[in-house]
Amino acid sequence: MVEFKKFQLDNGLRVIVHEDSSTPMAVLNIIYDVGAKDENPRQTGFAHLFEHLMFGGSVNIGEFETPLQVAGGENNAFTTNDFTNYYMQLPAENIETAFWLESDRMLSLAFSKKSLEVQRKVVCEEFKEHYINKPYGDVWFKMRELAYKKHPYKWMTIGKELSHIEHAKLRDVKNFFFKHYCPMNAILVVAGNVKTAQVKQLAEKWFGNIPAGKKYERQLPQEPEQTQARTLDVKADVPLDALYKAYHIAPRKEYGYYFAELITEILGGGNSSRLFQSLVKEKRFFSHIECYQTGSVDPGLLVIEGRLIKGVDMKEADDAVEEEIKKMTIGEVEEKELAKVKNKTEAAIVFEDMSLMNRAASLAIYELLGDADMMNTELEKYQSVTAEDILAESKKIFDKNNSNTIYYYSNN
């Protein structure tokens, strides 16, 4: 059980405090309710660009890293299609440094053509290195566009295309910031060797006078139900043929999400999983195969992906995957197998919660989903899943009309 307390400032900033006196450290984590799905389809990649811009200094603090390092701290951030998360860890006695730094860039991020050009170059290089020049780097651009026709999950966090970042104007960047990066759209979590009264005082001191901003209300286009199978053939200079399959699943807050998570573990969760045992170890069709889900707030995807052994026929490999999928839809999972994946999930959750930084991030994300206490009830939801649930959800997910398949062929 992760204990925490919540309060809200007058400007709408939600604050969560998790006291842990067993550590000399403290974490300040702030999550903004903005991700790639909130971008203009003609100006994508802005949320990720801002992840970089937020480290470029603010009006009052020209250089972000040095004062944090002097205080013995470290920091990082990550952007998803659903939200943007920033976090710092430092000795608890220096926690006010984190409040000072984080509040100042929320209040007065430094906007300059120079800063934009520097970070634009960094992001463009990242785009080229990881998505244009890397083998299989374009597969998720293609898969998202194949699987999503309306919902903005159809583009990557890095952006739909490189030109959107290359042509970003300073005024567009400023408009995006003032629309989303404000107390009304943020959740602050402070965890570690701190006291709630101390955090209240510091939150009021450093964040209390920041203008609230306007609460962002989403009106995203909803993805219609997929009614026919979609396939795409790709040829590229990659070392091996690869197979990618994706199926729409339930959104994060519905029970179907938990069913899908356990299905991915049964099919592709490590060397004892069904896909690995059958298609890597026994039939030797694949050198590597895995199954996972995207963890999206809105309806996401369950994904199967694998690299074929050289010389293996793509259709034969695909048929073998389909055979394993079919088994999930015609027979209930044995209790022993279900218990094993539940235990593995429980161990992963417990292990993750051991880290103070992970606890802080989880509290922020769960609060964004609707209630930080979900962190303490998630395990019960996984444990309540039955073999009948797995069978019923497998039939729903693995409906042929719900499938998106990319056959990625090597030119070599």
Task: Give the helices and strands, then pairings.
Elements (H helix, E strand, L loop, with lengths): L4 E4 L5 E6 L5 E8 L13 H8 L11 H6 L3 E6 L4 E8 L3 H14 L4 H20 L6 H9 L14 H5 L3 H11 L5 E7 L3 H12 L22 E7 L5 E7 L6 H14 L5 H9 L3 E8 L7 E8 L5 H17 L4 H19 L2 H14 L4 H10 L3 H11 L5 E8 L2
Parallel strand pairs: 2-6, 7-11
Antiparallel strand pairs: 1-2, 3-5, 3-6, 4-5, 8-10, 8-11, 9-10
What is the residue-mean pLDDT, rounded to a whole number?
A: 94
Assign the CATH class of the largest domain.
Alpha Beta
First-to-last CA distance: 53 Å
Number of strands: 11
| Shape annotation | globular
Reading side by side through the largest sheet, how are the strands ordered? 1-2-6-3-5-4
The major β-sheet equals: 6 strands, mixed
User: What portion of residues belong to β-strands?
Assistant: 15-25%
- What are the low-pLDDT stretches, counting only 5+ consecutive residues below 50? none
Quick one: CATH superfamily of the largest domain?
Metalloenzyme, LuxS/M16 peptidase-like
- Tell me the Rg in angstroms: 23 Å
Indicate the percent of residues in helices. 40-55%
Order of helices and strands: EEEHHEEHHHHHEHEEHHEEHHHHHE
User: Which architecture of the largest domain would the CATH scheme give at its second level?
Assistant: 2-Layer Sandwich
User: What structural category do the secondary elements indicate?
Assistant: alpha+beta
